[in-house]
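Recap from last week: sequence in, structure out.
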Amino acid sequence: MKVLIAENNASVRQFIRYTLQEHFPKFEFEVATNGKNIQKRVEETRYDLIIYAREMPMLSGDEFLLWRQDHSRLSAVPVVIMSADRREECLKTAVKLGANAYLIKPLLMEHLVHNVREIIGTPQQDPRDRRKSARIKAEGKIRLKFEGKTCRGELINVSSGGILGMFNSRDGLPRILDHVQVDIELNNRPELHGLTADVIRIQAVDSFRGLEYIQLVVRFDDTLHPEKKKEFEHIISNFQSGALIK
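Predicted structure tokens:
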């Protein structure tokens, strides 16, 4: 399936892309940073889903929906409108113009994924995709290095695509979409250094330790050295299958 993400804010655009790639690994993504020529792109390329910022420069979300009404073929393409405007009349206008969903910024990952699933259904995953995204409980330590700083945390789970860890926010943490270098130490296993990744999720947790504890998800990027990736996958493949998180 092909998805168009029309959003002028780079951080929001990347957040949407990383989130949907994590949950829908077979999707193909294209992006638009403003409304210039977007009508021509939509006419010439067949998209299965359009995620559009209401405040898009050069062609707002309402203007895009209004233009789309005059094109019978495009009216069947689902459109999700995003906006920081919480006013009820804005939501009603978008729905009246044909939006399939109206998401309030700042976006929550769960809401985004839920709405996409509701609109397009849940495609059947290839078994290899399921293995890649399978999360495994892990005990150990994790260090993130970024901008000359280092923060240390505890591992919660791992997969071949990335790591979830718990950190204390008082130590200073990277921001969403920051590029980091990851060192991990799994209990009773060799330590790994220099895994390159991007922070794709930051969330507060209701923890007995206190509200200052934050969970971070990092996803290995495309520049991860093949030998590093192979070494990491070899280590986690040795975990017992019973440790998989269902």
